[in-house]
């Protein structure tokens, strides 16, 4: 009789930081496509070290050939994430980036995905801030909330994603 008054519970997925550094709102990223949310919702991290790790168990959906970005799919939810190291770093043509994964690879939380030379990226004149974007959030999520402040890879949460019921 009171079924219509019961609240539907939504599943919230907490995503650990793939980098150690300082998480900032996407609006602070010096690139309109990311800052304006045109690529999707998320958060960005100003990395303190040059190592991007898998924040969850998943599958590598894509590695950009210049190795400055990778897409992972969360096996448990189907959510896909883009980890884009730096802004306009495609211009480095792969210099300063070492990928440890390929498309189709299964990865475990904490596994190194990409190592990168922060100093070389900065010396070339590129920002190192790294957007973390939920690329299929419009399809699968009712909300995406970024958490800001100092974060440690594999320890602190940077995103809370509420899945659609």
In brief, what are we looking at here?
By secondary structure, the protein is mainly beta. The protein has helices at 32-35, 118-123, 137-140; strands spanning 12-16, 21-24, 41-47, 51-53, 58-63, 69-74, 80-84, 97-99, 106-107, 112-116, 130-134, 141-146, 149-151, 157-163. The strands form 3 sheets. Strands 9-5-6-7-11-3-2-13 form an 8-stranded antiparallel beta sheet, with no helix packed on it.
Helix and strand arrangement:
Elements (H helix, E strand, L loop, with lengths): L11 E5 L4 E4 L7 H4 L5 E7 L3 E3 L4 E6 L5 E6 L5 E5 L12 E3 L6 E2 L4 E5 L1 H6 L6 E5 L2 H4 E6 L2 E3 L5 E7 L2
Antiparallel strand pairs: 1-14, 2-3, 2-13, 3-11, 4-10, 5-6, 5-9, 6-7, 7-11, 8-10, 12-14
Describe the overall structure:
It is globular, with a radius of gyration of 16 Å. It contains three helices and 14 strands. The chain starts with 11 loop residues before the first strand and ends with a strand. It is mainly β and 165 residues long. Strand 6 (69-74) and strand 7 form a beta hairpin. The strands form three sheets. It has an eight-stranded antiparallel sheet, with no helix packed on it. A three-stranded antiparallel sheet has the order 1-14-12. Strands 4-10-8 form a three-stranded antiparallel sheet, with no helix packed on it. The protein has helices at 32-35, 118-123, 137-140; strands at 12-16, 21-24, 41-47, 51-53, 58-63, 69-74, 80-84, 97-99, 106-107, 112-116, 130-134, 141-146, 149-151, 157-163.
